[in-house]
Amino acid sequence: MLKRFVPLLAAIGGFLLAMMLATNAARAEKRVALVVGNSNYQTVPQLPNPSRDATAVAKMFRDAGFDTVDTLINVGNLEFKRAIRKFETIADQADIAVVYYAGHGLEISGVNYLIPVDARLASDRDSEDEAIPLERLVSSADGAKRLRLIVLDACRDNPFVKSMRRERKTATRAVSAGLGKVEPTSTDTLIAYAAKAGSTADDGDGQHSPFTAAVLKNLTVPGLDVRLAFGRVRDEVLKVTDNRQEPFVYGALGGGNIALVPAPTVAREAPTSDIKADYELVQQIGTKRAWEVFLGTHPTGFYADLARAQIEALSPKGNVNLAALPQPPTPSREVPTRESLEWDRVKDATDPAALQRFIRRFPDSPLTVNAQQRIDVLKKAAEERAAQARAEREAARKAAEEARRQAEALKAEQAAARKREEDERRARAAEAAEKARAAEAERKAAEAKQKAEQAEKDRAAADAAAQRAAIERQAKAAEAAERAKAAAAERKAIEEKRKAEQEAAEARAASEKQSREAEEARRKAELAVAKEVACKDEQGKLEQIIAKGSEGSGIDDLKTFAKALKCDRLGGAVVAALNNFEAEAAKRAAKQPNSPELVRSAQTELVRLGCFSGKVDGTLNAPTSAALGRYMSIGGQPTANISVTSQLVAELAKHTTRVCPIECKSGETLKGETCVADEKKTPATASRKNEDEEAARSRRKQTSRQPEEPRRARPAPSPEPRVRQQAVARPSIVSGGGGGGGRAQAIIGVGF
Fold first, then answer.
1. How confident is the model at residue 56 (pLDDT cuts 50, 70, 90)?
2. What is the C-alpha separation between 704 and 360, in angstroms, rounded?
3. Which DSSP state fits 251?
4. Residue 73 half-sphere exposure, CB side, CA atoms within 13 Å?
5. Residues in Cβ contact with 44 at an 8 Å cutoff, skipping those fewer than 6 apart
């Protein structure tokens, strides 16, 4: 009974061992992925598929056993950049790093950008701040050791292109809805586009875009080389879109099979249709490396034998290294180590760099000797190929030299043939001349008989000579005309070239002039805008100062503003405002007590009222103060601390007649409106004096009865002494206060 189950147990053990080996092989390499899908754009219409595409791709990578899969759906600018920075750290520790992006992308001036959902692209200058450069996304996977793969489903018809303004003056290319071609700068890097550079891709009407649907079907097939996988993706997208959309892959990988998901240790026979499709795809490429990739994926079978035959046909004769070709794997019962698995992967590689990496990774392994031997074999093969190439170049050089010698020999032979023809022509001419001389001798011998005939022959010979001379002249003229024509054509060509160069120079100068004029216009416009902004700002400040008024620090603020003023058109307004402020200040100052204006007005009124006889100069001096004191005392008002105010001036102006009485000096007597000197006392004089005093008292009584109409003094009789006139012609003249050092005589005046 036990013997019956031994084969079954062995089969089960083999199966479990194969599963363990497959699991170890998958775990031997660390694989990480970053998946981004942007659908809900905030400033342009939304895309239905990118978020679904990204979710499905992330699930595909998780099902394929990837160690880390970071998924971002509808990501903004800052979150996008942080995710890229995080993925850089993760990719540094990985063997395979894959980045997938679905959403909007565009090209501006030769630079590719991926668009976050919160981007606001009003002009092409906003791209550097609002969008993510594709180069940053590509470089985030640079730390991966074996494969760096960037998959971009971002070539859709972009609505940002139609609304963006073109503000860059130095832009050499326009804004494009599709992404531009990018050749990876690092090795072992592939960038897969949903459509060719510069073209757009369909978003699709189904659950996924055509490109992503093909990626989901083919990219993680176990053991399928990534290049063959994208070849299948290309064929399916072309078929689905009726050849409108063609995916494209940029970059290159080394030799050997590179798959995102390792093939199982127990070989599983692939469908013949898939093998045939891969064979036909590689056949279109037709390179030796492509056939090696095919053999790495399908090492056995009918098509594998055909692929080896293709490699043998492409290899130089005598230099076919059969050890370099992938061979069917030899089954092993031992559990392979990481070292042996790595050696199985690189032992048949044709890239010395892969073998060098193995030596650096396992320096103490005995397999490093085999790796070094393999490197030596590859170097020797490369040297042999170089030697063969040198031999081929030498053979080509010799063939060219032989061809040159043959051409020179042919040229010499043709020259010899022309010389022989010339000699024969000359010989025939000499023979003809000899015959002519013989005929001439014969004619001379028969001169008498053939005289007329000879003359005719001579004329014929002369005609022939003239004809030959004419022919020669025509030939020379034709040759000269041909030379002149060639010279004219050459001069014309030189002139046209010079004219074209001059026109090109003028066009360049005109273009540069237009550029300078445009730049100057732009600067002027910017200066005008800045000046207008400054004018508006200064206009607001001026309005604030004017609204504040001239009181307080208003005038000083306006003067300070005028000194710092930059807007020319506000100069007139500032001057007018300053004049208004100063006029208002002057008015306020004129209304202040004891101001020069009020003092001048008071002096004028005091002169009119007979209280002041000094100079009207607006100065509150001693005479002016005395005159004010006289006026105040007459009115019964206090005379201490008199201040000239507008009310005082108004009060002075109300009086229509003299207020202050005329004061005569000592030795003078007021008679009417005139001060007269006193007479010496004689009897007659005393009598007259009594009469005069009586008359004066009578006048004073009359004056007291009529205060508003003073009487005129009677004219003095002729025998009386000289009289000093007290300037009664004008009511503004006031007598002095008693000159000559004598005591002034107080005279009661009129007005109060």
1. very high
2. 141
3. E
4. 12
5. 104, 159, 160, 163
